[in-house]
Every structure is written in structure tokens, then in C-alpha cells.
Specification:
The chain has helices spanning 7-19, 27-41, 45-59, 118-135, 228-240, 272-282, and strands at residues 2-3, 70-73, 100-101, 108-113, 140-146, 167-171, 185-190, 196-197, 199-205, 209-212, 224-227, 258-261. 29% of the residues lie in helices and 18% in strands. The protein is an alpha/beta fold and 292 residues long. The strands form four sheets. A five-stranded mixed β-sheet has the order 5-4-6-9-7, with helices on one face. Strands 1-2-12 form a three-stranded antiparallel β-sheet, with no helix packed on it. The longest helix has 18 residues, at 118-135. Helix 4 links the parallel strand 4 and strand 5.
Length: 292
């Protein structure tokens, strides 16, 4: 987890803000501030310090009371899978892809753990809709509540794969997953081969984060706000067959190995590269095929 503690981080944050991926500040404001920062970074160390002080003052009105803006690594949200050839080569059409579901298995059925509120279920469904729009076809179907079951009933992370239900689970006891407290959520899956998926779950870290609507939720002590729609899009991307995408390759990808969290921060869009990668796996129908 990284606080706003250097100019390069703020510069990167403003580039994301200017892209429209985070709906908070005006494009004009971020564009002007970004230009100022870039000018300062090209200058002397004295000007660097001055710029940092100035921009932190500006961000004083941006960071909500009781909450700070963080960039959180999600690089450890999956177990590194066997992946498609070329998955780590940015020049390959298979870059960022580890596999996928057989098209005959679509739409993928998902049940909600019984501790997920109706509002939280809705945000996950909205995240699903973003990926479906990218391919122009139905990728998911929700099957209701997994009665009596939530993340905490499983003795460990991978035990949830032993049933026949693909689940979206709230975990109040994150320690059972074996993941660091800083991990926002984790996607797990299995299948008959390294590249074919037939079962998958998502577990959300509700012990150390308030994972809900970033525009209405507030931080709870040390539990920072993370936007569930944003987190769900990232984890669903993994379940669809996508790996992390290097920020230098596609800085606007929802599959970047870090996400911005905090009150009022949400990245509810996917990049053109995300669309192209998911279409490589599932194809496209209708207007979705016109990526440009």
C-alpha cells in the first residue's frame, strides 16, 4: 500500500484522473495541474519540492475527511497460473491472457454469499455488465443467494472450489485465505486443463476494507474504502481469463496490478486494450466488434 508521498505518484494519479477512468475531478482541472507538474518535474530540485508542496495543498480539498487516497497493489490477488503462450509478451495477441471458459459454458452462473447486501450484489452485477458490453454477449448469470454460505464458512481459500457453485463471497475473517491483509480481494479458479476454466470464486477482503460504493461509503477506522464495482471488475477479469497488465503497456487497464482506493475514487471503465484482450478469448457480437 502506498500513500501519496511523492510527485511521481501524484503525476500518475492525475493521468488516470484526466483519462476519465476515475469520475471525481474535472478534466480541465486535472489537465492544467498535470501540465504544471510535468513542467516542475523538468525543472530543478527546488522547483520539485515547491511543486510537491503546492499539489499536496490542492489535494487537501480532494482527499475526503477521514480518508486518504492510496494506490494498493493487487499483484498478489491470484495464484500465478499456467498461461497461454505469449501471455507475458506485450507484442503478442495473447498478452495478458491465461485462458478462459469454453463458450459452451456461457453464461457463467454465479451465486452471492449470504452476507453480501443487495447493494453490493448490484455493484457486482454492474461490473459483470461492463465485461458483457465489451463482447456484446451474455457472459454471466446470477443465480441468487448461496444459502447459509459465505467466505468465512470455508476452512481455507481454495476449499470454496470444492462445491459446484461459482461464488462471490464476503470474508470477514481474511486470515483464512492466507493472503496479506493489504490484498483487496482474490480470484481463484480451476479447470480440466491449465487454460480452460470450469469453476471459479471471488473472495472480498471485508475485514480490512470497507468494500462498497466509494461515493457513499466512509472509512471505518483503519478500514479504508474500496469501490466494490471497481474491485469486482478486476477480479472478474481474472475469472474470464485475463492476467495483470503492466501499466507501461496499458496504463488505463482495469487489470493493472494496482488500484486507487479511497472515498470518492472509482475506476469503473475498462480500456480499449481490455476489450481487445477479452474479445480474443470470447469473440464479439454486433456493435461490440467495433472497438474503435
Amino acid at each position: 500500500m502506498h500513500k501519496i508521498d511523492d510527485l511521481g505518484f501524484i503525476l500518475n494519479a492525475l493521468k488516470v484522473l484526466r483519462s476519465g477512468s476515475i469520475a471525481f475531478l474535472s478534466t480541465d482541472w486535472t489537465t492544467k495541474t498535470l501540465k504544471t507538474l510535468e513542467d516542475y518535474m523538468a525543472g530543478t530540485a527546488f522547483r520539485y519540492v515547491g511543486a510537491l508542496a503546492s499539489i499536496l495543498m490542492l489535494f487537501g480539498g480532494f482527499v475526503a475527511c477521514g480518508s486518504k487516497m492510496y494506490q494498493v497493489s493487487v499483484a498478489d490477488d491470484i495464484v500465478t497460473p499456467s498461461a497461454s503462450e505469449g501471455s507475458d509478451d506485450p507484442t503478442s495477441t495473447m498478452y495478458g491472457i491465461h485462458g478462459g471458459w469454453d463458450n459452451l459454458s456461457l453464461p457463467i452462473p454465479f451465486a452471492f454469499g449470504n452476507e453480501l447486501s443487495e447493494a453490493q450484489q448490484t455493484m457486482i452485477a454492474q461490473a459483470m455488465a461492463v465485461w458483457e458490453k465489451a463482447v456484446g454477449k451474455k457472459l454471466f448469470k446470477t443465480t441468487g443467494i448461496h444459502e447459509g454460505v459465505d467466505g468465512d464458512v470455508f476452512p481455507n481459500l481454495f476449499a470454496s472450489l470444492n462445491d459446484t457453485i461459482n461464488g462471490q463471497y464476503h470474508n470477514a475473517d481474511w486470515g483464512k485465505t492466507g493472503k496479506s491483509e493489504f490484498v483487496l480481494a482474490t480470484a481463484i479458479w480451476k479447470g480440466p486443463s491449465g487454460q480452460v476454466i470450469d469453476t471459479g470464486d471471488v473472495h472480498y477482503n471485508d475485514q480490512f476494507y470497507v468494500i462498497g460504493d466509494a461515493f457513499t461509503e466512509t472509512a471505518d477506522g483503519d478500514r479504508e474504502v474500496a469501490d466494490r464495482w471497481t474491485v469486482a471488475m478486476h477480479e472478474l477479469g481474472h475469472l474470464l481469463g485475463l492476467l495483470h497488465v503492466d501499466e507501461e503497456v496499458d496504463g488505463l487497464s482495469i487489470m493493472n496490478p494496482s488500484l486507487f482506493i479511497g472515498e470518492g475514487l472509482a475506476a469503473r471503465r475498462i480500456s480499449k486494450g481490455d476489450i481487445e484482450r477479452v474479445q480474443t478469448i470470447y469473440g464479439c457480437d454486433g456493435d461490440a466488434c467495433d472497438v474503435d
